[in-house]
Amino acid sequence: MSARRPRVLVVGAGFGGLRVARALRHAPVDVLLVDRGNVHVFQPLLYQVATAGLSVDNVTRPVRAIFRRQRNVAFRMAEVTGLDLGARTAATPDGPLPWDFLVLAAGGGTNFFGNTGLAAHSLGLKEVEDAVRVRNHVLRRFEQAAITMEEARRRELLTLVLVGGGPTGIELAGALAELAHLVLAREYAGLHPGEIRILLLEMGTRLLPALPEKLGSYALRSLTRKGVEVRFGVRVEGYDGRVVELGGGERLPAGTLLWAAGIRASHLLAGLGLPLGPQGRIPVLPSLQVNGHPQVYAIGDAAYLEQDGQALPMVAQVAMQMGVHAAMNIQRQLRREKPRPFRYRDLGTMATIGRRAAVAHLAGIELTGLVAWIAWLALHVVQLIGYRNRVVVLVNWAWNYLFYDPANRRIGPE
Amino acid sequence: MSARRPRVLVVGAGFGGLRVARALRHAPVDVLLVDRGNVHVFQPLLYQVATAGLSVDNVTRPVRAIFRRQRNVAFRMAEVTGLDLGARTAATPDGPLPWDFLVLAAGGGTNFFGNTGLAAHSLGLKEVEDAVRVRNHVLRRFEQAAITMEEARRRELLTLVLVGGGPTGIELAGALAELAHLVLAREYAGLHPGEIRILLLEMGTRLLPALPEKLGSYALRSLTRKGVEVRFGVRVEGYDGRVVELGGGERLPAGTLLWAAGIRASHLLAGLGLPLGPQGRIPVLPSLQVNGHPQVYAIGDAAYLEQDGQALPMVAQVAMQMGVHAAMNIQRQLRREKPRPFRYRDLGTMATIGRRAAVAHLAGIELTGLVAWIAWLALHVVQLIGYRNRVVVLVNWAWNYLFYDPANRRIGPE
Q1: 3-state class of B159 per DSSP?
Q2: Please, which residues 190-219 of chain B have a Cβ atom closer than 8 Å to chain A?
Q3: Are B348 and B315 in contact (CB under 8 A)?
Q4: Which residues of chain B lie closer than 8 angstroms to A189, CB-CB?
Q5: Mind listing the pLDDT tens digit for each residue in A245-272?
Q6: Residue A195 catalytic?
Q7: Which of A169, A298, A304, B372 has the fewest CB within 10 Å, making it most exposed?
Q8: For strand A159-163 and strand A197-202, is the pairing parallel, antiparallel, or unpaired?
């Protein structure tokens, strides 16, 4: 290596990529962070954008603003389309980007498991566009229902089906139920509130399967109280935009199908010429390096790694911890030290179920109800990137809590 | 008329349409308000959306939420495509809407005076989509410039031309100059701030021609201090997305052309079968009724009316006053009284020129600088529809004022 500082190319400005760049702030390297968007997205709050509680700008922050004061980070808005592992460059439409170390942190997307009908007609919740689409779609269905005379068609438009009983499905179901029953039912004079129906379908036998049983049953009671019908052991096989096909032949007319039943790694990875594992993720060594390519790391949703015989989950916490670890191992490599194996420490899981209700599993302690909700609120406000967003989001939330007025409801172009 | 209450159909939920519906709150009528969007847009702040200071949700409010408590108003999201003046119905894609009284309050749009090149490549600022487009466009130009090696091309990308020295052009120029010089110049490490150029072109001989001379020269000094080049007596003849053609053959390379030099009435009016006047507006009687159609009113940008030999301007104030007046005349007609002529009272004009600088002409008094800016701020915060928006907008502004951090900068899909 010459006098030039080593170049670290980080692909993706999500939770993982951001942590890599930050953890390298004192390292003698030049970091280039690339993302196809110009903002970091605070994904855990996307469901609030989808349900009109927050606006897109509340949950996004320009990457350039985040790193304004960190001198060794540059940003570029670009889509990586391929890799040349020999020449150590990444291809983009504007030309190749050279690297000495590469960190793949491209995140994940919704997994429809190859079901093209589902992919075409149902809505995911992994990206900003998804959240905006959900909001537009649901509000449009209400507008259509308001002018529909035929009862069966109106009921179809007002039936929202969510698939997946994990944290995303639960948070979305709770927020949608409040939006529909507390706000929309009041504002659409011609509609019978009884015609609004929100169903949460889960293939397994309980909600929040990754958490202790008690939290799953609390979530079930809480959602039921909010008017969500929860059904277990139901398999969704198809959707054409009007009828959901369930396993066993049942057909459920519904104007909206929200899919929170699967995630996969970014499609970007498929074009890189690296072998892919389950969910399209790149298998990595315990050091987070890609086997055979010691200068290439994969982290977060992009990486497949097992710990104690189980694949690490595709969640923000794993991505953040891996980001810090990859940055440390790169610095070790620069000092000609051996990279260390990564070990995930589960700090806990939380999910809200509308206002004043949440479940949390933190350091072995199980919390439910208002206490869990306050813990959730505090953690998310503290974590929100950018002080401005924090203040604005807090004001939004305080207002919503006092007056329940999810006002971010403009229906955008389709 | 039978026992059924008379139906008042209001087309457009802008400043005019909203005032009509509100002013009819105690009248024995059923109001149906229709708009092709589901929100009321606070247009005077769109330039702040265009320059990343506010988000779309800050300046819009669901029409249904606004009228939640007014029993005799119903809302429908629909585009009116024609009128049957004999049958007294308005056509929409979802079927005809009957009326006993009709108020056309469809607002206005950008006027490119038939120049198709300008219409295709330059950006207006009359609608939410315009503001979002301006923000995306300007930020994209900066991202492109950051990876452009060739100096001439980079300078082109960083040249922003605004056309029109009225309030919109001035507000936009001031806010863009602050965004570009205070924020973007800091965050794009590779760019030379000296390559950023913002020009404001005005065909006449001074800024703010509708206001006293003193205010125009204050605006000129203020913009110049912020780094805006103001040129007078310049006529823009065309734009192809890269080069602005000026009268006299001058060619000005520029990546962005913002057009604030003309407005016209909504294109919707052209399909109604009513005669149109200047700017595509419908000529109305002093009572705001359409000649020959005593049950049909037109107000705001949709109406053409002269007062003391001058056409009333296409501004929010005129629309609001006309809205209240049309509602009064409809009630007079119901009581079989003669409609009264409308008389516009100019309450004054204001325009901001970035932070801490503004001009105001109120009740004959001319204000400039900080005093005018505070007056502007107070008025706009008070006028903002919806208490929630007011609080959130205030927090945004307070934050921006203290730290200057226009963070609403996500580049959306093109």
Answers
A1: strand
A2: 190
A3: no
A4: 74
A5: 999 999 999 999 999 999 999 999 998 9
A6: no
A7: A304
A8: parallel
